[in-house]
Design goal:
Blueprint lengths: L2 E8 L2 H18 L4 E3 L5 E8 L5 H10 L4 E8 L4 E8 L2 E9 L7 E6 L5 E10 L2 E7 L4 E9 L2 E7 L5 E9 L2 E12 L2 H18 E3 L8 H10 L6 E3 L1 H6 L2 E3 L2 E5 L7 H10 L5
Antiparallel strand pairs: 1-3, 1-4, 2-3, 4-5, 5-6, 7-8, 7-17, 8-9, 9-10, 10-11, 11-12, 12-13, 14-15, 16-17
């Protein structure tokens, strides 16, 4: 079993600080799997990559002590093509759901880099109901996206960063693309947002590291970039991918799994969404 799990805790900032102290103490006492903390003032977020089960007990027992906080667990097992979600309040399981999904390998990917290793455009994309949707990133911008239609006639929606709402729309017909900034912005449905977040996290873990990440977490990547002579930018491709996966193409580096019938998707994002790097 190889699980990716994200545990998010929301509520009063003062209670969150106390909850974190109690959970971290319990996790340290257990001495189990390593984890990353990605907290903000409004929420706590723990990321686990697990070989066994999710470490529920510390979070459940702390939830009993802080009943006003909401604990949400999202997990995925790419090998089995399964994911799930649970919500805990006052130490009690309030919501739970498990669903099957296409294995991670079924997501289509496109990654392009400059000759010096700089990220040009990278995206992961999958079918969701009648749409294509996914996550796209360039040197200084990233977004969720959704496409309705086909290459000749479609609508492309994009978020502003990874906000939970559609902020922009391109309407494509007969080779022309009409742009509109959405006002008001359109909320992304909760079930779709969960899938987009899963795609983005899995793709980023595999391909991307960020300059703003903790130096201790990215020390190996920073050292390899120095050794290879690659400049570090806000968003960077992992060194192993640059050296072993991407292949020379037209003076740059590239990898792609889009077939001929879907090549229009990365081309659409490059044409409409991608803005020149600042």
């Amino acid at each position: 079993m190889n699980l990716n799990a994200t545990i998010t805790v929301r509520g009063d900032p003062g209670l969150l600080r106390e909850y974190r102290a109690e959970v971290n103490r319990a996790l340290d006492e257990e001495g189990g799997e390593s984890y990353r903390e990605l907290h903000s003032a409004e929420r706590l977020e723990y990321e686990f990559r697990l070989r066994g089960g999710i470490p529920f007990p510390p979070f459940v027992s702390a939830s009993q002590a802080f009943p006003d906080l909401t604990v949400e667990v999202q997990w995925s097992d790419a090998a089995l093509g399964r994911s799930g979600r649970a919500v805990i309040r006052n130490g009690v399981l309030a919501e739970q759901g498990v669903q099957s999904q296409a294995p991670a390998g079924s997501a289509l990917q496109e990654v392009r880099a400059d000759a010096d290793g700089g990220l040009d455009l990278a995206l992961a994309c999958a079918r969701w109901r009648e749409f294509w949707h996914g996550y796209v990133i360039a040197q200084d911008q990233h977004a969720f996206f959704r496409i309705a239609g086909s290459g000749g006639s479609c609508e492309l929606f994009a978020s502003d960063g990874i906000e939970a709402e559609w902020a922009e729309r391109w309407t494509v017909a007969s080779g022309d693309a009409d742009y509109a900034e959405l006002a008001p912005r359109e909320p992304i449905a909760e079930d779709e947002l969960r899938e987009l977040d899963r795609l983005a996290q899995e793709f980023s873990r595999e391909w991307i590291w960020f300059e703003e990440s903790e130096p201790a977490e990215t020390a190996v990547e920073r050292a390899r970039f120095r050794d290879y002579g690659y400049p570090v930018r806000a968003a960077n491709l992992r060194s192993e991918k640059l050296r072993k996966v991407l292949r020379p193409e037209s003076g740059a580096l590239a990898f792609g799994s889009f077939g001929e019938g879907a090549r229009w998707i990365p081309e659409l994002l490059r044409r409409c969404w991608l803005r020149p790097a600042k």
